[in-house]
Amino acid sequence: MKKKSNVKLLTIILASLMMILAACGGNKSSEGNKKNKANSDEKLSVGYYVNATLGDKSFFDSVKRGVDKAGKELGYEVKTIEGGTNQGDWSAGIESMVSSKKYDVILVGTSQTVEIVSELAQKYPDQKFIFFDDVVADQPNVYSMTYSQSEGSFLAGAFAALATTSPELKGANPEKVIGFVGGMDIPIINDFKSGYEQGAKYIDPDVKVVASFIGNFADAPKAKELTLAQINSQKADIVYQVAAAAGLGVLEAANEKGVYSIGVDSNQNSLYPGSVLTSMMKNLDTSTFRALKLFKEEKLPFGTHEELGVKEEGVGLAQDNLYTEHVPQAIRDKMTEVQQKLSNGEISVKSTLK
User: Of the candidates 28, 84, 102, 278, which lies 20 to 30 Å from 14 by C-alpha distance?
Assistant: First the structure.
């Protein structure tokens, strides 16, 4: 009887051990589960947190196009959350997305959320992040992609310097003055400004750049007021806006005064044809789609940062049918030359962020 009892006890112990091992096997890390999910037919999910609101026809809308394209062409389940303009809400908003455990990868960006994402990446090491337009450093679960806004803005500055003295543009005046309106006086916007100034001076050292800052990226009426002051008082005849949704006020003001403007981040030429002569594009949509494609293929290099410039087609000028129609051939030819020199390294642009 004792022998049978020992055998029975041993059987119970072995069964218990097998159950424990099975349970441990079923609780693999979320990293492993996500890899299995990526290789299966189950849809991956991406959450896009907008630390602003959509509708800027520029920066955040461009990212949204890339996310939506990934949903249609790569089969992602897509969720976009607009965080609004109150910065105090952003940390809780992003953490709510992370803690929900609904998203295989979370897409968020701009220099204003670097610290938030860095802290959350440490707190939730299994959550993957794609971060755009700035760098979250030293976090193995974050991939960062930036754009050489200094190179793109060099093109915008060169273009503006050519336009301000062009005899073929009716809205150009004799004064060599071009304008810049930025959303906020912060490092990344000043990098745009620096590139713009360098491009203008490359064409003509006598060109003067006048600059104004709105204080946010949403106040279009204030942006319009600042632009009108540059046009009326300082004689600017072309103004470059780097202000997201607020920048729409810049474009409106230039159009009303019969002068010119340069859009930003997306192709804004069609908003005021003939007034918006070109746009400096950060190709956020294509780079977002590229990152999500690499993530699905398990090839996205987390823990690293990539900068995309003119050579990589991360930035460039919008040269569509409206550009061809409204921009004089002499300017178009010169801009082709400048862009080629940037691409092959003949022109070097200094970034204020390095």
Answer: 28
